[in-house]
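TA notes, week 10

Several of you asked for a full example with nothing omitted. So below is the full record: structure tokens for the whole chain, then the designed sequence directly under it. When grading your own attempts, check the secondary structure regions first.
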């Protein structure tokens, strides 16, 4: 082939640039069309071995497909809150409960024994006392039992649970006035029977007026 013919077939710089520009333009257009159509891979064609390890992110999975990781360490303890106000008197309708027991020995009948009941919080007024002896009918203000002491608002109910060799028992206040109470507590007393050991035990409840 003549040299002049070979020279005429050699691509010129302008031809090379035009060809590259056309290729880029055609390639970009083809990608845009494919991108508009979405994924073109057949369904279920991507398997584990075709995915690069570590290339997927959590957002590539549906909710619940990935197992939850271990719980993290507990956070720091928050600051101590402001202490609440101290209760000066038991709020109305709130109930306090407790138990009592005492005993002694008296060589003669009429020996005196007692125990003090202190309310955890004082009441606004002295409650009305009720001593519920074993086997007796409790007043309406004392709807409970020895096992579950109850008292209506403004009342102090003592439920006798056991008794031994006692001739008399009841409730008094700190001035030893019978059938009286204090805003902060009361006294349960008993008198012995015929010269012997005596004892009394039970439970109590008081409800603020």
């Amino acid at each position: 082939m003549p040299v002049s013919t070979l020279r005429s077939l050699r691509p010129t710089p302008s031809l090379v640039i035009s060809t590259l520009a056309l290729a880029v333009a055609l390639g970009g257009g083809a990608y845009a069309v494919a991108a508009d159509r979405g994924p073109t891979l057949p369904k279920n064609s991507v398997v584990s071995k075709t995915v690069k390890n570590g290339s997927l992110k959590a957002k590539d999975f549906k909710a619940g497909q990935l197992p939850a990781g271990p719980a993290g360490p507990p956070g720091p303890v928050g600051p101590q809150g402001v202490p609440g106000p101290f209760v000066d008197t038991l709020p109305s309708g709130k109930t306090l409960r407790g138990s009592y027991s005492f005993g002694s020995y008296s060589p003669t009948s009429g020996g005196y024994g007692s125990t003090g009941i202190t309310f955890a919080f004082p009441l606004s007024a002295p409650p009305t006392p009720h001593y519920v002896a074993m086997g007796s009918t409790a007043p309406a203000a004392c709807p409970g039992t020895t096992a579950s002491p109850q008292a209506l608002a403004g009342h102090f109910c003592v439920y006798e649970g056991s008794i031994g060799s006692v001739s008399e028992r009841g409730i008094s206040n700190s001035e030893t006035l019978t059938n009286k109470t204090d805003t902060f507590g009361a006294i349960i007393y008993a008198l012995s029977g015929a010269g012997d050991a005596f004892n009394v035990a039970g439970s109590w409840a008081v409800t603020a007026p």
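The longest strand covers residues 95-105. Use that as a sanity check on your answer.
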